[in-house]
Design brief:
about 160 residues, 3 strands
């Protein structure tokens, strides 16, 4: 068996037999997209003196208050790291902690009005991403939204 036929079989196996664009090619495109989005968000957050992780936390909190443990899980970071991120955001008045209405042992992190304004400004400042999305037609935007939701969001709309 040649290296070419073995590679071909590996690509087919990892693709589940799908014809057309391979999973490897899709992963490459997704990776490049994530790198671009990461860079754009990092630059926009930096204008406000925030890190990428702080901006991500604020963005997650746009959906509503969240317990520290859930935030750490969503952001895929250690709970102690999440505490440091939230401490710094709280010191700037962008979030605050409050007791959970269902479990007094749990503290929810809540986005403040200033935090919501910061998220809106950061998202508006992601010029590279906006330019790329603005270049899409209405149909392409709808298709992209549908595909990304189908591939990456669970049934409850959470990543």
């Amino acid at each position: 068996m040649s290296a070419t036929s073995g590679s071909s079989r590996s690509a087919e196996a990892s693709d589940g037999g799908h014809l057309g664009v391979s999973n490897a090619a899709l992963l490459d495109t997704l990776w490049a997209s994530m790198v671009s989005l990461y860079g754009d968000l990092t630059t926009a957050a930096g204008v406000y003196g925030l890190t990428y992780s702080q901006a991500k936390a604020l963005n997650v909190l746009r959906a509503g208050p969240a317990p520290m443990r859930a935030l750490a899980g969503t952001l895929r970071c250690d709970a102690s790291n999440m505490t440091g991120i939230i401490d710094r955001l709280e010191a700037r008045g962008l979030v605050h902690r409050e007791p959970s209405p269902t479990d007094r042992r749990v503290k929810n992190v809540v986005l403040s009005e200033e935090g919501a304004a910061a998220v809106d400004s950061i998202r508006a400042g992601m010029h590279t991403t906006h330019e790329a999305l603005d270049a899409l037609s209405t149909e392409e935007r709808a298709a992209l939204q549908g595909l990304l939701s189908r591939v990456f969001l669970s049934h409850d709309g959470q990543a």
